[in-house]
Design a protein that fits this description.
Blueprint: H1 3-28, E1 36-39, E2 42-44, H2 46-62, E3 68-70, E4 86-94, H3 96-101, E5 107-114, E6 117-125, E7 130-135, E8 139-143, E9 149-151, E10 164-168, H4 174-181, E11 187-191, H5 194-202, E12 208-211, H6 218-230, E13 233-236, E14 256-260, H7 263-271
Parallel strand pairs: 3-4, 10-11, 10-12
Antiparallel strand pairs: 1-2, 4-5, 5-6, 6-7, 7-8, 8-9, 12-14, 13-14
Helix pairs in contact: 1-2, 5-6
Length: about 280
């Protein structure tokens, strides 16, 4: 995909995500957000469902026939995505637990993959009043509420001992804590929303986002990966393998590691093997 095509599709995805974010924001302030649970303590709200429907309708109108692998859609609607040359990966409300807790750590994410690789990513940080769009090899930008855009870039930290790492707030255990301690980072900071953690890396506000264990689904990684890589960083699973957006298994069972290019191999070496 050339720069012109990447910008054109990126802008369509950006406008779509902004529209979904307005839906999410409106429901966020309601007294009744129609909170239910899919499995165990995994919540879903009216905002998840309505933002999902809005995004599906908008993207289907622009690129009919391209599979849209979305968290709140019936899997039958994206059957065959593994054989498609391209697909969208959508998390209409990343950080639903944080949305329910009203701590502001949630976002809307739309990713686009070509030939199994993340090619364009859009993340709208609803409570930040900012939106992010990027295509690896082409551009990475933040758009302010005013509409002004500026480039984003990962940090230049090249020492783990001087690094700050964001870790999962909701998926912690003694085992993951022991593995994360191997990094020797200056700080391990719990934070919600995979997308927001990746944005902190893509903008250089923090140095790493790491989770050495099951870490969401492909719709949790596609947009963040595209943005981190577009901003000059690296994002793989926690074993150092590229995410494959044509694989039949949606779950990211081997975690995630996002950082600048200097820290990535150092962090992989420290993490070593894990169950």
């Amino acid at each position: 995909m050339n720069l012109a095509d990447a910008r054109a599709l990126g802008d369509v995805m950006l406008l779509t995500a902004l529209g979904a974010s307005e839906i999410v924001k409106g429901i966020y302030h309601r007294e009744d957000r129609e909170i239910a649970f899919k499995e165990g303590d995994d919540p879903v709200t009216l905002a998840d469902r309505e933002a999902n429907a809005f995004i599906i309708e908008a993207l289907s109108a622009v690129l009919p026939g391209v599979p849209i692998v979305a968290e709140e859609s019936d899997p039958s609607t994206y059957a065959g995505y593994t054989n498609a040359s391209a697909a969208f990966f959508v998390d209409p409300l990343d950080g639903t637990r944080e949305f329910v807790a009203k701590n502001g750590e949630f976002c809307v994410m739309i990713g686009f993959a070509e030939a199994g690789r993340a090619a364009i990513g859009v993340v709208v940080a609803t409570t930040w009043g900012k939106a992010y769009v990027g295509a690896p090899g082409h551009y990475a930008e933040v758009m302010e509420a005013s509409g002004a855009r500026s480039p984003i870039r990962v940090s230049s930290t090249n020492s783990l001992a001087e690094s700050r790492a964001l870790i999962s707030r909701s998926h912690k255990s003694e085992a993951t804590d022991r593995i994360l301690a191997r990094l020797g980072a200056k700080a391990l900071v719990p934070y919600g929303s995979a997308g927001l953690k990746a944005l902190h890396v893509a903008t250089g506000q923090t140095d790493l986002y790491v989770h050495p264990g099951p870490s969401g689904m492909l719709w949790d990684s596609c947009a963040p990966e595209a943005l981190v890589r577009a901003a000059g960083g690296t994002m793989t699973d926690a074993r150092g393998r590229n995410f494959d957006y044509r694989r039949p298994t949606l779950a990211n069972v081997d975690g995630v590691l996002a950082s600048n290019a200097d820290l990535h191999p150092l962090a992989l070496a420290k993490l070593g093997s894990f169950p």
